[in-house]
Amino acid sequence: MAEEYTPKERFAKALKGESVDRMPAICATQTGTVEQMEASGAYWPDAHYDADKMTTLAEAAHTAVGFEMVRVPFDITAEAEFFGCELKEGTQKQQPSVVGHVVKTEDDIKSLEGYDLSQKRIGTICESIKQLADKYGDELPIFGSMIGPFSLAQHLNGDDWFTNVMINEEFGKKLLDFTTEFCVAYAKKQVENGADTVVIIDPTASYELLGPDFFRKFVLPYHKQVVDACKDMGVGTIVHICGDTTKGLPIMDESGTDAISVDQKVDVATAKENVQNAKIVGNLDPVETLWNGNPDVIKEKSQESLDKGVDFLAPGCGIVSATSNENLQTMVECAKSWKY
Questions:
Q1: In b/e form, how buried is each residue of 145-175, taking b as 16+ CB within 10 angstroms?
Q2: Which residues contact 217 (CB under 8 A, 6 or more apart)?
Q3: Cα(271)–Cα(275) distance, rounded to whole angstroms?
Q4: Which domains does the chain possess?
Q5: How many helices and strands (H and E) does the chain possess?
Q6: What percent of the chain has pLDDT over 90?
Q7: What pLDDT band is residue 3 in, cutting at 50, 70 and 90?
Q8: Residue 215 CA to chain centroid, in angstroms?
Q9: What NCBIfam families does this protein's entry cite (predicted)?
Q10: What pLDDT, on the 0 to 100 scale, is given for residue 4?
């Protein structure tokens, strides 16, 4: 019996809360693994910097694993590198990380203005999105992904960022205005190149660290600006923040995002109770369940999340590069067998 919807149609309807035949099999966070690299011939770190290799590895998440979407990039350092931050180079098994920072004063912020989104890795990612959209855009959801405004500010400002947020509000807001303006422009470029969903990954925008007042002041309004820009373009959004976001979910929901990705520290049933509008994505432990577990464990943990009402079964954070295709395929099949 033929499926009623294409994966693109099914995901779009499910994201809006409309009736579909079954759950889409998606991953909101990074998808690259060593086994996918071996299957496709596109390896990190080259696949971070070469659009053709990035595209080849991204599509392996669909062709080798079975995810019903494709997404890029595979890390959250391209934006900081774009603005001149020093990186620790990644390897075939490990993503790059930010080790040097470029903003200390308001003059430093001004010096970063006038950027060109066609340059450096930002341009590479946008070109890969175009390639993926040209090949799969009629069939599969095309996810573009970026670091969120708060975490980009931390990458630019370094260890001083949390102190500045707490005691130097004027500087903090000016840097957030800049990073948010960039995120909006970047989202628009991704959509122009074919993305139909934008994933905002803001790992250091931690409700656990900031508390409700600072979270509402320094995270919510900036997320809302990016989400609103995406809404104006008619594309969906997913927001991911690491850690136990349970108490922050009602505030995150106020951004208007279509979905919130939660990690393994969050109870799905409680998450569902704490939001009014956003769909919940998650929340299989990427280490203990998906990497170190086996298919039986993954089926058990998947069933727990499904029974608690998760809207999209997915990893609770980025997939560990050593995760096996078999384990990921098990999660995919659990999602695809679930009828809402």
A1: bbbbbbbbbbbbbbeebbebbeeeeebbbeb
A2: none
A3: 7
A4: 23-93+115-336 (3.20.20.210)
A5: 16, 9
A6: 97
A7: low
A8: 19
A9: methylcob_mtaseMtbA (NF041608), mtaA_cmuA (TIGR01463), PRK06252.1 (NF004889)
A10: 82
Cβ–Cβ < 8 Å for 34, 92:
yes
Q: Look at the chain and count its residues.
A: 340
Per residue in 141-178, pLDDT (tens digit) is 999 999 999 999 999 999 999 999 999 999 999 999 99
Cβ neighbors of 111 (< 8 A, separation 6 or more) are none
Q: What is the pLDDT of residues 247-284, one digit of tens each?
A: 999 999 999 999 999 999 999 999 999 999 999 999 99
Q: Which tokens belong to 238?
A: 């997913």
DSSP three-state, residue 337: coil
CA–CA separation, 109 and 164 (whole Å)? 14
The DSSP call for residue 112 is T
Could you tell me if residue 256 is left (phi over 0), alpha (psi between -120 and 50 degrees) or otherwise beta? left
| DSSP letter, residue 194 | T
Q: Check the CA dihedral 161-166-171-177 and report its sign.
A: positive
pTM attached to this predicted model: 0.97
Which position has the token pair 């078999």? 326
Q: Return the amino acid letter for 270.
A: T
Token pair, residue 274, equals 């704490």
